[in-house]
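Q: Two folds, back to back.
A: First:
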Amino acid sequence: MAENCFHCGQEIQKDRISFDEKVFCCNGCKSVYEILNSNNLGNFYELNKNSGVRPDEISTQFDYLDTPQVFEKIVDFSEGNTTVVTFKIPVIHCSSCIWLLESLQELNPNIKYSQVNFTRKTLQVSFNQNELKLSDLAKFLTNLGYKPVISLETAEKKEAPVDRSLIIKMAIAGFAFGNAMMFAFPEYLNTGASADYWLKEFAPFFRFLTFLLSIPVVFYSASDYYKSAWFGLKNKIVNIDVPIVLGILVLFGRSIYEIATDYGPGYFDTLCGLLFFMLIGKYFQKRTYSALSYDRDYKSFYPIAVTKVDFGGKQENILLSEIKVGDRILVRNQEIIPVDGILINGEGNIDNSFITGESATISKQPGDKIFAGGKQIGSILELEVIKTVNQSYLTQLWNKEAFRKEELGLDTLVNKISKYFTFIILGITLLAGIYWYQIDFEKMFQVVSAILIVACPCALALSTPFTMGHIMRILGRNKMYVKDALTIEKMAKIDTLVFDKTGTITYNKKANISYEGKEISEFDIKNIKSLLKNSNHPLSKSLYDFIETEDQYFTIEKFTETAGKGYEAELRGKRYKIGSASFTNQQSKSLETAVYIQCENEFLGKFIFKNEYREGLSNMARHLNHYELHVLSGDNSSEEEILKELIPNITQMRFNQSPEDKLEYIKSLQEQGKKVAMLGDGLNDAGALKQSNIGIAIADDSNSFTPSSDVIMNGEVLTELQSYFSLTKDAMSIVKMTFIVSLLYNVVGLSIAILGKMSPLVAAIIMPVSSISVVAFTSLSTWLRAKKYF
């Protein structure tokens, strides 16, 4: 009796290795078992019996990965003792693979974390490069049975093209279908009293030819369906491919029986056609998904601009997409670094927690390399760009698990419905099979196959991702950039809107500014303007543009910022403080918005602001009358009456609010059962944005990318907010309508199939047609709804 390896489950053909009362097919499997067992990870095998992957028996050399040129191309990030790399691992196939690969830190103390992307078959690993070389990491994964595929394509982080094997499978099925139909003509024509003797004589030969044509179709073209169904069943999941596989096997088995007993021609031509049309539907689905993914990753550039500076010190705001290698850019305090660069001026204090998960900061000096994704804590930096912006990398950073808010979405709901739907279909098939067995045994096979094929809930499963994908594209084209499909669902449920005041409902740069205080020397004015350049606060930006003096950059030392209050630093031998009245130890004499200036503990004066509110604010408030509207501000209440006049339907206003106060206010609304959307500055209001059900970061022309937000919105379209929220509500209606359409397909198709009025071939044609019609319906519906608003 053949034995199977305890680790990988494969039949032992050569050496039988016994260890720990278990048998293994090779030393590799035995070694992996020992590693897992010694690290108390033996429950890996409890997830799924025989779930291991057999290690590669060939000693693979990965030493070339440690050469600087290759290392630079392969890794995503390398700073200090931390390196992050993403490997392509095609053999990832089930839940136990994911469990093992996400437990690597238990197997090797030099690995900090590992994360699997199952759909893309990739593994991202963060490890200590001083203790574990990149080549050793690749060898370690290979010894576990998960050999990384490393090529120029994966090194350059390109998206994988459409699966060529799918095209080959589709071509084989199409070729077999066409020829099988041709060979089946004698059977169709060989009826009645005038039957042609020659056709009748050669019918067995034509039947045998159709059988031969069906073999590569059934065993190769349909292989993906078998794998999907098998892996699902191994993980105790009955997925939508199970009934499809049953239908294929029933038709194939019945057809073999008919030609073997000379009972009839079988259904080989129908079977080839069935798989051909199903593969067309699958190809269409993959291409459409690929198009949506490409559009999100590379075309939806966030409405962020960075400050480009020339060698003469002249500054210019440019879009991320316009950054070129060799450009020099400025990165201010708390800003995310958008590109890889070399530090030219300034003292870097880089927080890489968004990338590595560690909160420690790393000091950088001029000449050092700085990776995209880090956040500068301190004074302004001048960088020379060495890599252009990688939009997909920023999207990956934005979608980090640490910033996700767990909530059940429609997509998850559809998957659950699909699971129960499969059981219902199998039950209907069984009942219909029993009925037709008693009525017409031969027809039973046709009915059972037709039911199993036509009832596939593909259209149901496609309705949500395709609708949401189109909505995300439409919003992106209109300068609202949404993190994921679940965000759109949550936007549709919002009933409370909370606005930050400064820089959100007011313009960043437009303000009436006046000065009150001592005369400031030209020396101090230049220092103050240079210091203002370091801050991202809207008032600092406005004041920077207001001060008219030569634009020079002086080295900033000991820069510190207190969120919501102000900042201080030393430059050219003097220490300055810029911020609120309390920050500079002054008393606010009247209700006003002002920036106070202090030099060497001497109060110089204050710049008084009269904010200019965004045009169309009153109109926006009127259209949002079915929402609760709240305004939070770090400023005092000097403009309370103006706000009440601009937003008469305002529910509540709060002033002198610190970032912590705003976060607590959001919590209090949520405790009342409110679904809250917070709109504010992506940097100063990060806590409140993350706490809210939907965090919307308002960006004008600054690098205010923040992983804490769910949406990044261009400030110039803020007053059209109602249109964006209305479109998300319409999206939910479209999804519900597609549910109805797809269910209608299944009800009508099932009814006809149960009555025995549908052949398996027609069922196979209807299945991709239903998917195509759902995609066409969602595309047309979303386009029409978008036209109404934009």
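A: Second:
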Amino acid sequence: MYGLCALLNPLIGKPRLQPGLLAGLLSISSGVLAAGDIQFNTDILDLHDRSNFDLSQFSRSGFILPGTYPMAVQLNSDTLPEQSVAFHTSEQDPKDSLACLTPELVGQMGLKKEYSAQLTWWKSGECLDTRSLPGMEVSGDLSSSTLHISLPQAYFEYSAPNWDPPSRWDEGVPGLLLDYNITAQNIHQRDESVRNNFSGNGTVGANAGPWRFRADWQGRADSADTGNTQKLEWSRFYAYRALPSIQSRLTLGENYLYSDIFDSFRFVGASLNSDDTQLPPNLRGYAPEVSGVALTNAKVVISQQGRVLYETLVAAGPFRIQDLNDAVSGSLDVRVEEQDGTVTTFQVESASIPYLTRPGTVRYKVAGGRPSDLHKGGQGNAFATGEFSWGVSNGWSLYGGAITDNNYKAFSLGVGRDLLAFGALSFDATRAQTSLSDETLSGASYRLSYSKRFEEFDSQITFAGYRFSEKNYLSISEYLDASQYGGPVGGSKSLYTATFNKQFRDAGVSVYLNYSNQSYWDRPASERWNLSLARYFNMGTIKNMSLSMNLFRNQERDQRSGAQSSTGMYLSLSLPLGRSGTLSTSASRTMDKNSYSARFSDRLDERNSYQLSASDNSVSGYLSHVGDRANLDFSASAQENDYTSLSLSARGGGTLTAKGGALHRSGSMGGTRLMVDTAGVPDIPIRGYGAASRSNAFGKTVISDISSYHRTAASVDLENLPANAEATQSVTQLTLTEGAIGYRSLDVISGEKAMAVIRLLDGSTPPFGATVKNQRQQDTGIVNEDGSVYLSGIEPGKQMTVSWGGTERCTLMLPASVPADGLVSALNLLCEGASANDKSPALTPLTDNDTENKHL
């Protein structure tokens, strides 16, 4: 019944539908459940020619003719990738057909091992015998091209919302990629040289099966009246792949040591790490966050040991960067380049939360190779390191590790405790012995970490930690620096770090605090803190006003570059204007300078936003555009009697596969992405993350910045489809491994729509119920009485085929043009290759002698 109604549903409400047809369908459907084979009383059909019809596809409830069909697989509430599904004649009932669930399809279901071991098969092991899984139900629906599988939840591996078990992960297709982030600036200072600088970074890569090959690049070019400087370098060449069976990631080539115990450094070699991103989202770690205040429209560059990790333009005012990769660890160098030439630098510690592991599981990281400086190549002796974390019981974790080379040895051991309502706590001790050219140093370092989410108080200590190191203790990075520069470098004594969030919802107040303090045995301490207070309130008819204050201090002391310090305050009052606009006034004081400004920001649409600002002696503007091919940021500033500045930033990429290619916007360099094919139809809006992007001239678009190992959906934006296109399949879902180039096609029909009358060579018409398909085998219409049909997807000069009785019978040649009134004046089309002799209705009318299903 469902298949019958769904298949004929496209006719309802369209021109020339016979009223008797709908009544007849209701009569037919009333007896569907009464018997397996359905015969039709054609007297109820309002047809002039009662010998010219073909309803064979409706003659058996749920019956699908043996053959292979492209179908999406609906497993309970989850949707598996579209794939070819074969239907074979049942061995028990020759008049029935069964879907063939192949071993590959069963492997995508994520069955527990004990249930996979008891499966039985039929058709020489090609198809699953569903009786081996009691409670399993399988049915096909050709009207929606969907195979429905219902299975008790107890059979499945662990799963979580929007997360699939490894059996359903997709490695993607082979392909090439190029991602970039470039910034161009022109700064003209009065009575000084004109400075032009161009900087950028990105990734070039290739995918082959589960392997990801990547090369990271970065460059900078500066020109001024005094001279030019140019620098372009490859910062990393490496390859990696996921090992889902052990929830790990294997990396070969140039890499950074991502350790939860030891400092990070660059090396050439291999590493095998447990990959937390392969875990369900609620079991993963967290990524570091960088916050600060920009006094003008500024460029923020985040790097680590010389390698640029992140570069972006920010508008004047407070900023928080929260989309760094969660694999980053260790100290991050932050550089804020103001448009007036002022440069501020500081460091952020991306320390880990307390080291806890689920009961009964072991997480590990092992690596080996040779340290390598980005600019000087090899540095130091070959090394090896390993660390682990073992979930001893429900609440206790034991962790530790070691790292060694010829002259350095360090060993660490710690314990983590889940305090339940009181948060999570961990403590570890590390002892290191260092042999330098003139002395041997030995010392210990102790670390305490704490994390807690206070739900009842609506607050969170994201991370709080303390580390104390003895005077003769050298970390691995300090040892490498000492080896390179010929003397002890470092002398770290203690490190305090904390990040705190608190919401006072009843009062409309939020508090954010980030603090770090690094002290040394042999030089002054460095300190950095940022306190943000915000108050939200209403005043009369003005709603959602906010008053915020930022207090910050950066005091850095670098062994080689010397000391720098800045302390300041930023006070802002904001009130909404219009539908999405905001007017803000602010006052700030930093480096003994006071400034006042007013800003107006608004969104033009979902793709464009802007900000205009003015102060006592300057004006500036900032425009952000989310494009199909790239994200663009543009800023302009002018300060009285000082400087003028123009900046442009572009962030995007290109992806090329055997299926096609597309330019696209991109955020994460070399990250996971999905190529969507709209059946070659251009200008189709596809929505994934953020604003929808449209397919290019070849019918391809790429959705970038997809979360790895996380279920991803892409869909056609039906509200913004072009008038000459319609989507018969509008949604797809999949889970991609890290760095994969996914590929999915959505069935889109493009072309004009018109009524038509189809004639055969002998002047007769195709039977009622015959189907019309285009060259892509997409259904474009069902023949009504007297050969009338409502056709969609008409492409002038192309061909369509007409089928009945399960066979293609003849070919339509479409006209070179479709009249503007095609829905009123029917086209007359000749179907070549068939005649009345080819008509063989599968069903015959009932006679008075029939006794079964007579009332149908």
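Q: And?
A: DSSP finds five helices and 56 strands in the chain.
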